[in-house]
Amino acid sequence: MSGNISKIVIRAVAITVSDRCARGEAEDVSGAILIECLEAANAEITQKIVVSDDFAPLVETLKKTADRSEVNLLVTTGGTGFAPRDTTPEATMQVIEREAPGLAEAMRFESLKKTPTAMLSRGVCGIRGNCLIINLPGAPAAVRECFAVIQPVLAHAINLLAGNTQH
After folding, report:
1. 78 partner at 20 to 30 Å CA-CA among 29, 42, 61, 85?
2. Nearest CA-CA partner of 117 in 102, 99, 139, 95
3. Cβ neighbours of residue 96 under 8 Å, at least 6 residues apart?
4. Is residue 159 within 8 Å of 130, Cβ to Cβ?
5. Phi/psi zone of residue 161: left (φ > 0), alpha (ψ -120 to 50 degrees), beta?
6. Helices 29-40 and 140-161, packing angle to 10 deg
7. Are the C-beta atoms of residues 132 and 125 closer than 8 Å to each other?
């Protein structure tokens, strides 16, 4: 980046998608790990949300959150598998304007080196306005592993979305 371009601060929202956590029946371990990962990446956490797997409310939550001017990164955990109520990818596809498939591909590729079940993750990534939306799996270990894959490019991606396109 040239000297006259300021580095944009990552302002993130972490969203856990889980029926059991939303009902208070389970501890949100994956969400806590996601917050740790975001903080380690020097992101400012603007909000932590826990929602059920209900499709329409999930779409609305993603839209409203991504459209907030102060938010430039929205990361979900959960709802990316094969279970009938796992609809986070479909909800995300309803919300994004442009896909960012390389991020999801990289996460699956690296995770597949550790577990064959990584190929069952249907998470997607994309852009809505100036906000990057990333779906992570719901398993605590997978949150940490997948975030580690994308973390090196997050700041650059957020800067590009903010219009800082000089290299």
Report:
1. 42
2. 139
3. 124, 126, 127, 128, 133
4. no
5. alpha
6. 40
7. yes
Q: Which two tokens stand for residue 18?
A: 């889980």
Among the residues of 23-161, which ranges form H helices? 29-40, 55-66, 88-95, 101-112, 140-161
The full DSSP string for 9-58 is PPEEEEEEE-HHHHTTSS--HHHHHHHHHHHHTT-EEEEEEEE-S-HHHH
pLDDT at 2: 42
Quick: pLDDT tens for 64-94: 999 999 999 999 999 999 999 999 999 999 9
Residue type, 93: M
Question: What tokens were used for 19?
Answer: 């029926």
What residue type is assigned to position 80 of the chain? T
Whether the full predicted model's pTM is greater than 0.90, yes or no, is yes
**Residue of higher predicted confidence among 6 and 35:** 35
